[in-house]
Amino acid sequence: MGGYAVVFAVAACLTFGLIPLVRRFSFRIGAVKVPSARDVHTEPMPLLGGAAMFVGFLVAIGVASQIPQFREMFDGSSEPAGIILAAGVMFAIGALDDLRDVSPPAKIAGMVLAGGLLSIFGVQMLFFHIPFSGADVIVLSPDLAPLITVATVVIFANAINLIDGLDGLAAGIVVIAGTALFLYSAQLFDNGFLDG
Fold first, then answer.
1. How far apart are CA 137 and CA 36, in angstroms?
2. Which of 16, 114, 115, 188 would give a disulfide with 193, using CB separation of 3.0 to 4.6 Å?
């Protein structure tokens, strides 16, 4: 668990450390959200917060690649590159949407591109379990796996986007979901269901 703690600390500290810089930059270029009737905040809020998260993510991936515990994830695998590229596409779409409104079809196209990049680089939904269905594990065919992967990216990205009306709500839900996924994945790894 030591390597996970290091990667988490790097990502968290760098992200939080960059927020004041991104905040100042956002105000300087006018990338702010003016309060509307739907918003809870009463003052303009800076946008482009994804830049701090994206840089924190990139540096954390770089640090993880140097930790022996994670070496097999990076040696001879295209998956980290796919995750970085897909995250870059999602960040670019979000940043562009913060600066000027991007049409819903263009956002969906970007999400499909991100999901497609994941699939091309080997990050795919190959099997999953549907709770209370009676089936143990559903194994996807090689034809269906890319489609389900792209659909999952689009569905989850839109779900988070739709709950982003209240300040901090999406971030809180992502923290809870990310923690749950981490604990679930760690349990799968400990029981021999995941490699690497």
1. 46
2. 188
CA 159 from centre of chain: 13
Per-residue pLDDT tens over the stretch 72-103: 889 888 999 999 999 999 999 989 988 888 89
Smallest CA-to-CA distance from 164 within 49, 52, 17 is with: 49
- How many C-beta atoms surround the C-beta of residue 107 within 10 A? 20
Other CB atoms within a 10 A radius of the CB of residue 148 amount to 18
Q: Which residues contact 180 (CB under 8 A, 6 or more apart)?
A: none
Predicted confidence (pLDDT) per residue in 167-177, tens digit = 677 888 888 99
Residue 115, exposed/middle/buried by CB under 10 A (0-12, 13-18, 19+)? buried
From the DSSP assignment, how many helices (H) and strands (E) are in the chain?
A: 7, 4
Beta bridge partners of 139: 127
Q: Which residues pair with 32 in a beta bridge?
A: 46
Alpha-carbon radius of gyration of the chain: 18
Token look-up 């790894």 returns: 189
d(CA 175, CA 178): 5
